[in-house]
Structures are given as structure tokens and as C-alpha cells.
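Researcher: Structure for this, please.
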Amino acid sequence: MNIDIDHSLMTMFGKPPSRKLENITEVVIHHTDGGGTNKSLFEWFKSDDCPNHGLYKKYVALTHYYIQKDGGVTEAYPLDTWLYHSCSGVRDERTIGIELIHKSGEFTLQQYASLLGLLFGHIHDQCPNITTISSHDYRYLKYSGKSKGCPSKFFDWDMIRNSNEFNWTINI
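Model: Predicted structure, C-alpha cell format:
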């Protein structure tokens, strides 16, 4: 699996706190409300038109990986850093965030193939203590009492369940 490294968000907004990979136990899956590429999304994050710079400087609303519709994967932040991405506050120190570019409709097969390779290949190899995959909506509801609908009703959780060779808990 090819993972492009683009740490330009970290260069612009600063380096998040460090953590040990063995302390990571959960992956949280998100989706954007965008339809472009990882590169165009990062350019928007950094643009003057983006209203979230204050949040990004606090490492809020960013994730480690981004998967575009053609399956291209970009690492925005190394796994040994932690970001506030799932509405769980300090609990995010133990999570990895993955964002799928998706405006509406079905996710692509290329996105699922990359997500599965990332989860059960690269991430598993780097973080052997992961036991859980959660939707952003699950975390959002648990910690705020509100529903966010992320990664959307179109996300095929059976694709994850059927490929879950490590029997990780799945929270939707």
C-alpha cells in the first residue's frame, strides 16, 4: 500500500503532542463534506477562506490519514502524535483518525480497499494494541449526547466487519 506523506498541515499549525504507539487502542472513521482530493482539501485547510485555523492550531478537527475517492491515502500527521478529532477530549490520545473524502452517495470501492489496507495492514503493524474501530458518530454521541451522522449512512460497515481478521470491536 502506498501512503503519501504530506505534513504541511503540521508545518502550518504546529506539531501536536507526542504519544507512544503502544498506547493507541482505537481507530475512529470520519468523512469530509468535500468532493475533491487530499491535496485540494489540505490547500483549503491552509487557505484564508477556511474558518477553522483557530481549531487547527489546537489540533482539533484534524485526522492522521485522508483517503480520497480514487483510494489515494495521505498521512497528514504521524501516528506518534495525537489530535482532538472524535469529541472525546483526552481520550483521543489513544485514537487514530481516518477521514474519507465524501460529499454524498456511496463511498468508492477504492476507498474501502485503501481503508482496509490501512486498518489491517499498516496501522495494525504499527499499533498492535488496537482493539476497536468506531464511527465518529459513535464517539460524538457517547461524549456529547448528539448525533453527527459521520461517516454517513452510506458507509458500509459490513465491508469492515467481513475483513476484520483481528476481531476488533466495531462501534457504529
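Researcher: Any notable elements?
Model: The chain has a mean pLDDT of 94. The longest strand covers residues 26-31.
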